[in-house]
Amino acid sequence: xxxxxxxxxxxxxxxxxxxxxxxxxxxxxxxxxxxxxxxxxxxxxxxxxxxxxxxxxxxxxxxxxxxxxxxxxxxxxxxxxxxxxxxxxxxxxxxxxxxxxxxxxxxxxxxxxxxxxxxxxxxxxxxxxxxxxxxxxxxxxxxxxxxxxxxxxxxxxxxxxxxxxxxxxxxxxxxxxxxxxxxxxxxxxxxxxxxxxxxxxxxxxxxxx
Amino acid sequence: xxxxxxxxxxxxxxxxxxxxxxxxxxxxxxxxxxxxxxxxxxxxxxxxxxxxxxxxxxxxxxxxxxxxxxxxxxxxxxxxxxxxxxxxxxxxxxxxxxxxxxxxxxxxxxxxxxxxxxxxxxxxxxxxxxxxxxxxxxxxxxxxxxxxxxxxxxxxxxxxxxxxxxxxxxxxxxxxxxxxxxxxxxxxxxxxxxxxxxxxxxxxxxxxx
DNA sequence: CTCCTTCCGGAGAAAATTCCTCCGCTTCGT
DNA sequence: ACGAAGCGGAGGAATTTTCTCCGGAAGGAG
Lengths: 209, 209
Prior knowledge:
2 copies of one chain form a homodimer.
Chain A: H1 7-27, H2 33-40, H3 44-50, H4 54-79, H5 83-97, H6 102-107, H7 115-134, H8 144-155, H9 164-182, H10 198-205
Helix pairs in contact in A: 1-2, 1-4, 4-5, 4-7, 5-7, 5-9, 8-9
The first copy, chain A, binds a DNA duplex through helix 1, helix 2 and helix 3.
């Protein structure tokens, strides 16, 4: 009894996930599912067939995003011996994947996510930050939380609707400005305000909706 | 015939404008007007009384935002002889005013805005950028467009709903990172991608909706 | 303090949007 | 070429959003 899934079905599922990632980032966790289907180039019924309701779709999007981000950190660490270079590679890669902003957007629409899911990527990134700081390459007053939220800021599309190509090019451009600001050599003032880890950020965000 | 406007009416108008600024930034140009009224602490009828329709409200919000931003540049120039310090002051002030992100959000929902409105602020900021670059303080490969869009990235609330205080503190913190990355001393690579002025940005954004 | 004018708030009908299922047709894989 | 799996879109139900109407509250002049 070959339990086979058809190729077009797999491809559609993939395109729906990608479209959902974009639309959720642009329009928030309550974005209309019709628009996701439209952007994926499928009918709305296909979306409902693959994901019985919004929360199932959200869950799948978050899971895919976290896995992709984790893989990107792992790849960056493997490819670059210099920890700051690894950080830099990760940031640009995360922008290309378009994977960062959707995670905080959907995390609290997705109850009881497995904490093990985010653990590995968080730990890897944290290690990268620490070793870049030990090597004197990354300014000592930033945290993993800053890194993550800066990438979120960089990867959200700007309001006003730029064409995708310009949007992406600007993001990489601005990432390089931010990365230059993150080097130890760039420090001119000690950063104000709360130095929050990922966990502290999640704890804070419990308060407001 | 004292043509007087009552004080509570003026106060309500102001609170609606402030709420609209926030809500438009968070939920986009089609945000429900009910939510704006609710956040302003007024009834929905009061909103409609002051602003006959969505586009009148949007127009008023944009106008107020542009005027406030222009005043902020002017004040920064007046207060700081050092052009980079003026830039820095402007960035932080713009974050406090919460005024940057709403402009691109609403600009194309507001047809036929007076170009003279944005002209002064744009010219002032452009002059500031140029003189900071001439003085060798600001990296030469950034444009006013970069400045503006970076401030937009910094002033949008992060997805996931942090409490307002944390949100603001993080924004100022990240602004300092970005500002350090904008100094001439920070340059490690030439910035990739398009170096767009404000006008070029507006021209680009005509394409996609 | 009182009266008149201006303004406010919320109810609720109408309009618009969004959800989500059903079923005839298409495409895949063998 | 046949059977099974998957697809798309129509369309009614449910939800959200718009926007007006009017009884009552609140500001301000005298």
